[in-house]
Every structure is written in structure tokens, then in C-alpha cells.
């Protein structure tokens, strides 16, 4: 996957997982990367490994902090809204606190970051591209993660609405919807045994329904798909939610 050297790109959730992999590839191809994360330690490691990266430490749960940090930076050519959180829990036990937390990060912050970035793209007159990282969970329900599924379904619709409104300004908006990716977000970690059992059961179902027989989608596939949509290799793909799922949603 090749991108234009000197491309200016803002990546949220850049400190780990998919975001970090995107930053590494963009940096390696000569892009100017603004890497946003709330974790200063992760940003320090990123800067040490990729010296041209511009680190931005922001807690995306705060609209005020987002505006304070992003409004002063230069216009970028592309935005990748990758940051997200995942809190499992059955529907009957889902708390308002967990609902607010997941929707604030997974949806509200995407709107705020995209508004700031898109306005600058429009003012610059050159257009650009925005890629939202969604999930197959936005299109196929899963037990035990009802609120998370709803946040990703909302991202899918937001992507289409943004494409509709921003298209006249030459701004393309698409989403990438991965199946399982082997990042710390998908690891049981400190879950209780009951939650671990549910995660494992969901993974068994996912694997059985995936035509390619792949449980963990290769990070390279996610990165290449995202950067293709972010690049100028296409001018007419917009409003799409592209699944990287081994054929799961087709089954």
C-alpha cells in the first residue's frame, strides 16, 4: 500500500493497537503524522521510535480539551478516527455510566474531531478524506456487548451522513469494519470468569461462521485497507463501510 509522500494525517487512538500500526506505516512512507492519545507514556514511546511524529496528548472524553489541542494545528489531508473503548456487559446489567462512557468516546468524540478537521479541510479548499474505524459488531449483534454494538452501528450511519454532507467539499468519508484484531482491546485481561467465558463463546461462533477460517484478522489487512481509503488512490469511494472480516458478514 503506497501513499503520497508528505501526506498530512491525524490518527486518534495512536498509542497502541491499530492506531499504532497505522502511525508506523504512515511514518515509514514519509507522511506527516499527528498522533493523538490520552496516554503520555505511549506517546513518548511512539515519538522515540518514530521521530517525525507530532504527539498530541488529549483525553477524548473532554470536548473542551479536544478543541484546545486540535484547533491550533495545521489542516491535514486525512483523518483516521481510530480511538475507541470496549466495555462488555449484558443488556440487563448495562449501566448509564458505561453507556455514557462508550458513546462519548466511540461516537461523540468522532463527531467533535471530525468537525474541527473537516472545517479546516473546507477552508483550505483542497478537500481530503476521513476514515472511521468501526466494527462488524455494528452490523451483526453479539451477546454481552449491546452498548458497544450500538456505538459502532451509530458510527456506520454517521459515516454515511458525513459523506453526504461533506462530498460537495471534496471530502470523502468511509469506515473500515474489522472482525477480531489481536489487540489489547480484544483480550480478556481483567475480565471476570463469566465475561471470559462469554468472550470465548463469541469467538467460537465467529470462527465457525468465518469462511476463511480466520479468527484474528491480520493487522496488515486493516492498515492497508484504511490507508487505501485515506489516500488519493480513489476519488469516488465514499459513504462505504468496508468489512475486513474473512467473509463473516457474507455468511
UniProtKB/TrEMBL annotation:
Coiled coil: none annotated. Keywords: NADP, Oxidoreductase. The keyword Glycosyltransferase does not apply. InterPro entries: L-xylulose/Carbonyl_redctase (IPR051737), NAD(P)-bd_dom_sf (IPR036291), Sc_DH/Rdtase_CS (IPR020904), SDR_fam (IPR002347). It comes from the Eukaryota. PANTHER family: D-ERYTHRULOSE REDUCTASE, D-ERYTHRULOSE REDUCTASE-RELATED. Homotetramer. Belongs to the short-chain dehydrogenases/reductases (SDR) family. This is L-xylulose reductase.
